[in-house]
Amino acid sequence: MYHKAKYLPAGDCGVVVELGNAITPQINGRVRGFLLVLEDAKLEGIVSVNTTYRSLLIQYDPLRLPYGKLVETLRGLESRLYTTQLPPARVLEVPTLYGGEFGPDLDFVAEHAGMSTDEVVRIHHSTEYLVYMLGFTPGFSYLGGMDTAIETPRLKTPRGKIPGGSVGIAGKQTGIYSIDSPGGWQLIGRTPILLYNPDGEPPIPHQTGDYIRFVPISREEYDSIAQAVRQGTYEYRLLPRKEALVNE
Amino acid sequence: MSNTTAIQIISPGLLTTVQDDGRYAYQRFGMSISGVMDQFSSHVANFLVGNAPVEAVLETTLMGPSMEMQGDCVIAVTGADMAPQINGKPVPMWQTLPVSKGMVLSFAALASGARSYIAFAGGIDLPEVMGSRSTYAKAKVGGLEGRPLRAGDVLRVNRLQKSLDLKRIRVPEQHIPKYPAQQVLRVVLGPQDDYFTKEGIDTLCTAQYTVSKECDRMGYRLEGVPIAHKESADIISDGIMIGSVQVPGNGLPIILMADRQTTGGYTKVATVISTDLPKVAQAKAGDRFRFQVVSVEESQQILVEQAKRMQALQTSCIPVVEAPAQQAVTAPQPAAPARTAAPAMGRVIHQSLTIDGVNFQVELREIL
What's the predicted TM-score (pTM) here? Predict the structure, then answer.
């Protein structure tokens, strides 16, 4: 973590506020803290804020708030970071059917890790993964905290179309494809819930700073949840995080 | 009187989408911003029809659509010159155009630029999705059913009495942009210029780059001299502005545009200033760019001047007096007759384009 934030220009209307150069929950927490401070300060001339692993991209209107004044104001807000309380974390439960037709690479991941498929599934679903940021596609989460015992390289040849809801592993990362897209992740299962629904309120159930927990389900449970999702009656299980479960 | 007017899409052209100034609110949930590629042209089009600058317009790419008005409405066409016509007769761009029920707007051929904008007085009657009407086809969101227009679509346009009573005006010649095949793009260095060698930055400032076939709403891949990194081309993924000049490991820059992803893990050497983004939006495969570095302060001074020019444009618009039917015939369009009578062909360029996930190869012939 940097002692003081770095301000990096991104053209005439953007600035990157970089708080560190590593992927850690502490730096990411500082990023979320900065977002809260910014929202609280309601600065005239801020157009949008994007948060990432270790930085914020602030888009602003220089006609109302020129660069020099913006950076000066943001520097002034930095001290508030030390006293900002982050809201309690929440855990989004992602019911997941592992293996079979929805997890065609589970056998390969198990073989690569030198363990049984059941063991891979057990390891994969027994961690709560921190959502460091969302990006790539709407609702796609960059998750941290996967057990390195099940890390697996990407496919040599990416698949042309991976269905939304697919759960995969790529190197040290795990994630959920939020919409149909091409990709090279090893697919180990699929969730019937939507992590992006343009007609939903909100369209994306979770946000940076939340955690994701995979919950293994049977084919019957998968089908019944999928039906509820289609009918618009599925309710996300987004619960306060029990600190006792903290394992990092 | 119904409070909307229907517009029937006869042919969608190559790629025609509904766009406004973009979808900002869900950026940190991974939602691309999208929006018009050339904000100058869309803002002027909206001004000419009495709309707020941010109102949704149609953005059409390289080959324009044709559409039949099923009621009277008022439109304006700006941006790339695709030789717009009403009922087959050339009509001027950059001016308020009243069109009557049954008339067909079409486009003869691309003369310059890459993207035209069609604004409708009163605005397009579509719901905002996540705070915007912009189409982002990849996530099937916004516009008409989250996709580019198709033949047979019916678009509804708000019908306001004040729109039909609009004073007709045109933009004076000196305020109409030209789209030459060679452009200088002013950039601000950063956010990751320190990942590049001094030679790499010198290359950026001096080399000429050619727009490759891979140029679309997401980004423009350029060909030319590689820009040298010190070590790695990879960073911990961070946010991406429109106009970011991203340089992956092969050293060849990519200018990221409206449909870019919200985050990315490659170094970005510089960012094209917002005043120059329309130059990128109106470029096509084979066009050439040079980069010129300016400071943040200079870039913001340029923006102040650009805002003044936009004001000057608005106050210097000239009233149009001809009746609409005659205007369509007699409007001063010296180049127009040549277009309809088997135009001479100049250079041919090829460009790839992705629509609904399908790749198309497009051939463009320059009209001389």
Answer: 0.90
